[in-house]
């Protein structure tokens, strides 16, 4: 017999009754029923109930074991009594009577309990991640992640892609976040960078004549943490294709991701129709470029109804350039209690409040109620109601100012309204391509123009577009949103050197600097670069959605905490004096 096990803890059934077996695993739970000890023995695959009574030659040893001890047992498989069968587990019809036991690893007092659903502070869970990962939900999440990655690889190979690896020590590149720098020992004073993405390399693979590339790629960005973003590293499905247009990329990505969400989505509806929404419309309707389309509510501009009205706050606001008033319709939200709650929500988000109107039946007809209704009168409130398609029992909420100042709050408010009023459909994955991103933005304080999105995107209209107003230039860039999260980002690349240099020049990067920072790509584009494009899909976020959690750390094996610290491995740590000397570095104390 194998020294540790003849079966896993999920293998045994009634077919094994009468056999002598060997199992190894962790003591999940111990129960003493009048001198008979029942132990739930757990491994990665499942749980088997083993029991021991004073007739067992190792009863005294079994009495000493505690939760999370790692043990091996030998014993005889017995059928459970009919009224003791546990249909919730595969081994629920049998149990194993212990004849021999070996303690493979005893456990100290546990800082967190593996059995049950107790909640522990995240800091405790991350410090003792190896214990946290023993919990059933974490075993399930990590298995899901592994299965999703495996399925993605198979699907990409099946449609003609090959996987190639790109370097993880490279040069710094502006990808929209801070680099992690690595000092060079052989070249004092110079630094490598961990790649924020394999962007330049995958484009160079296309220039090299490889038609289709993909990789499950590690990416490194020194970012401020969020619940849906790792502050240090993450993995993405990175892909690129030659001789393609934007729609070709969409047609390639959709069946892969549809298949993944159908395979692992637990039976939830997976939308087959993926609308294409312009960045401008997404901001207008949803306040965000990653809208949750399970919520059908759309914002609308209602500025004309408040211009010159009796509501002085909005009327005066509209006298300023670049301002507007938007309304969020709220069908079934027509109660003062709900309206006051949403107003308080806006105040918590840092706004003075959120105006509202709700419509009620007063017996002799419909009446608009709320502070705004009193100030602007029945004619204007009636016009607003008609524009928004609302009826008795409905409400509308209003935000005003320069859109970029209130859109993020409006987006959150729309989500809250959809959830609380039951408009957001559950058990559904709703996808949308967000297209026509602006390439540039202007700093309102300095007036300087810089890249708003990916600097390597091909501008729509090519060189002609770059000779006009840069703030009107749109790129062949796209994101894929799902249930309020950005899952994919990509672009048709700027493969023409003259257009690329002009694009960077507009953002303040001279040709000399472009050639210095992107020398490899600049040189390569002189030798017959093909039209190409692609995208990257966030593995962590995909698994997060499939696992039904909103915290990305629940689907990463060993994540950092919110302060980008690894509490388990004590990183980041202070270098030794010898290490600093070897690298020619010294630490300057912060005041």
Count of discrete alpha- or pi-helical segments spanning 4 or more residues: 17
Low-confidence stretches: none
Q: Indicate the overall shape.
A: globular
Give the class from helix and strand content and strand pairing.
alpha+beta
Determine the fraction of residues in helical runs and give it as a percent range: 25-40%
Describe this structure in words.
The chain has 591 residues and is of the alpha+beta class. Helix 4 packs antiparallel against helix 6 (246-264) and helix 4 (136-158) crosses helix 16 (539-547). The mean pLDDT is 94.
Quick recap of the structure?
The chain has 591 residues and is α+β, with helices and mostly antiparallel strands. The chain has 17 helices and 24 strands.
Give the helix/strand layout:
Elements: E1 20-33, E2 36-42, E3 47-52, H1 59-62, E4 70-79, E5 94-105, H2 122-127, H3 129-132, H4 136-158, E6 162-163, E7 180-183, E8 191-194, H5 199-207, E9 212-220, E10 233-242, H6 246-264, E11 269-270, E12 276-278, H7 279-286, E13 300-301, H8 312-317, E14 324-330, H9 336-348, E15 355-361, E16 366-369, H10 371-388, E17 395-401, H11 403-420, E18 428-429, E19 431-435, E20 440-442, E21 449-451, H12 462-466, E22 477-482, E23 485-492, H13 497-506, H14 511-517, H15 519-524, E24 532-538, H16 539-547, H17 577-583
Parallel strand pairs: 3-5, 6-9, 11-18, 12-19
Antiparallel strand pairs: 1-2, 1-4, 2-3, 4-5, 7-8, 9-10, 10-24, 13-14, 14-17, 15-16, 15-17, 19-22, 20-21, 22-23, 23-24
Helix pairs in contact: 4-6, 4-16
């Amino acid at each position: 017999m194998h020294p540790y096990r003849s079966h896993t803890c999920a293998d045994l059934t009634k077919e094994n009754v009468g056999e002598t077996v060997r199992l190894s695993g962790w003591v999940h739970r111990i129960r003493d029923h009048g001198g008979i000890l029942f132990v739930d023995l757990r491994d990665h695959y499942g749980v088997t109930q083993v029991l021991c009574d004073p007739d067992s030659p190792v009863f005294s040893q079994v009495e000493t074991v505690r939760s999370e001890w790692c043990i091996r047992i030998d014993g005889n498989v017995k059928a459970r009594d009919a009224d003791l069968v546990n249909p919730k587990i595969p081994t629920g019809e049998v149990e194993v009577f212990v004849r021999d036991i070996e303690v493979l690893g005893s456990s100290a007092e546990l800082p967190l309990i593996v059995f049950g659903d107790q909640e522990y502070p995240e800091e405790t869970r991350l410090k003792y991640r190896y214990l946290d990962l023993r919990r059933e939900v974490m075993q399930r999440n990590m298995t899901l992640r592994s299965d999703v990655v495996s399925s993605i690889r198979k699907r990409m190979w099946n449609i003609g892609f090959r996987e190639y690896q790109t370097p993880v020590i490279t040069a710094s590149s502006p990808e929209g976040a801070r680099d992690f720098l690595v000092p060079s020992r052989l070249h004092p004073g110079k630094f490598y960078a961990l790649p924020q993405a394999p962007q330049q390399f995958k484009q160079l693979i296309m220039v090299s004549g490889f038609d289709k590339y993909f990789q499950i790629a590690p990416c490194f960005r020194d970012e401020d943490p969020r619940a849906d973003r790792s502050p240090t590293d993450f993995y993405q499905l990175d892909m690129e294709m030659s001789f393609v247009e934007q729609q070709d990329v969409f047609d390639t990505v959709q069946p892969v991701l549809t298949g993944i969400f159908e395979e692992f989505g637990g039976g939830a509806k997976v939308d087959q129709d993926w609308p294409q929404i312009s960045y401008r419309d997404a901001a207008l309707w949803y306040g965000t470029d990653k809208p949750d389309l399970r919520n059908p509510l759309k914002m609308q501009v209602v500025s004309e109804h408040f211009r010159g009205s009796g509501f002085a706050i909005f009327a005066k606001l509209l006298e300023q350039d670049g301002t507007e008033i938007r309304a969020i319709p709220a069908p079934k939200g027509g109660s003062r209690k709900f309206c006051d709650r949403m107003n308080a929500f806006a105040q918590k988000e840092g706004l003075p409040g959120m105006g509202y109107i709700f419509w009620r039946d007063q017996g002799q007809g419909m009446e608009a109620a709320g502070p705004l209704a009193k100030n602007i009168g029945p004619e204007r409130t009636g016009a607003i109601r008609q524009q928004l398609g609302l009826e008795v029992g409905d409400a509308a909420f209003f935000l005003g100012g320069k859109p970029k100042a209130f859109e993020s709050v409006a987006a959150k408010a729309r989500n809250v309204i959809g959830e609380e009023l039951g408009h957001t459909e559950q058990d559904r994955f709703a996808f949308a391509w967000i297209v026509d991103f602006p390439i540039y933005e202007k700093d309102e304080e300095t007036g300087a123009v810089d890249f708003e999105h990916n600097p390597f995107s091909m501008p729509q209209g090519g060189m002609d577009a770059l000779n006009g107003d840069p703030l009107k230039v749109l790129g062949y860039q796209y994101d894929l949103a799902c249930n309020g999260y950005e899952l994919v980002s990509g672009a048709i690349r700027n493969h023409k050197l003259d257009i690329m240099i002009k694009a960077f020049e507009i953002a303040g990067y001279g040709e000399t600097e472009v050639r210095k920072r992107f020398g490899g790509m600049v040189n390569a584009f002189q030798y017959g670069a093909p039209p190409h494009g692609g995208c990257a899909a966030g593995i962590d976020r995909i698994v997060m959605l499939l696992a039904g959690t909103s915290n990305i750390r629940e689907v990463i094996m060993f994540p950092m905490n919110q302060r980008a610290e690894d509490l388990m491995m004590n990183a980041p740590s202070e270098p030794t004096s010898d290490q600093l000397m070897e690298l020619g570095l010294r630490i300057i104390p912060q005041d």
